From TrEMBL:
The keyword Kinase does not apply. This is Cutinase family protein. Belongs to the cutinase family. Keywords: Disulfide bond, Hydrolase, Serine esterase, Signal. The keyword Signal applies. Residues 1-30 form the signal peptide. InterPro entries: Cutinase/axe.
Amino acid sequence: MNRIGRWLGAVASAVFVAGGCIAAAGQASADPCADVQVVFARGTFEPPGVGGTGQAFIDALRARTDGKSVDVYGVNYPASLDFATAADGVADASNKVRATAAACPDTDIVLGGFSQGAAVAAYITEDEVPQGFALPPSITGPLPAEVADHVAAVALFGKPSSGFLQMIYTGAPPITVGSRYAGKTDDLCITEDPVCSPTGSDNNAHNLYVANGLTEQAADYVAARLDGQQPDQSVAQTAGQ
C-alpha cells in the first residue's frame, strides 16, 4: 500500500475504532447540549486550540447568534510541516462531529479550518475514499451520510490548492468538499494567497484573513445558515487584499 493508502487507512481505522463507543460516551456526559457546536482546525504551527483565524471567526459568529449558546472544539492534531499527520486531525474532528450528532441531535454543527486545518475540515466531508486504496469494507468515507444533516455550515480559510498540496506532500489525496456539504460551505481564498490560489504570489496574504474581514464575512454566512436562511453558495470564493 502506498503512503496515501496508509494515510487514509490510519484515518479510517481511528474513526472505526472510536466509532463504537461514541454514543455511549455522549450519553454518559452530564454537560448540556449547546445550540451550536463549532469544530475548528487551526493552521500549521499555531498553538493548540483554534488559532488566530479560528478565534476571530468564532468571536464574529458569537456576535451574530442572538444569545444562542456556542461551544467550541479545537481539533487535536500536530499542525506541523508533516502533512501526513493531518490524518490525526481528520480522525479527531470526525469523532467529535459523530459524538455531537449522537449525543446532541438538535445541536447545529459548524465545521471550520484555516490553512492545513481547512484541509482537515474538508477531508472529513468527502463522499468517499478515493478508489484504489485498501480500507476495511465497512468504511466508505470519513463521515456517515446521516451526519451531514447535523452540520449546518462549513467555513474554510486558505484551503491548500492541489498544486500547493503536491509541493508539500507528493501524492496527497485531492481536497474536495463532498456533495452533501458543498451547498453549505464558505470556501474563502485571498487571490494573492499562494497556498490556496494558483495565481497567488504574496506569502503574507495567507495571514490576512482576519485583517481582510473574511472571518466576519464567513460569520455572516454561517449565522444566516443557522437562522434557516439559504445564503448564496460560497464555494471557492476569493477576495483581494
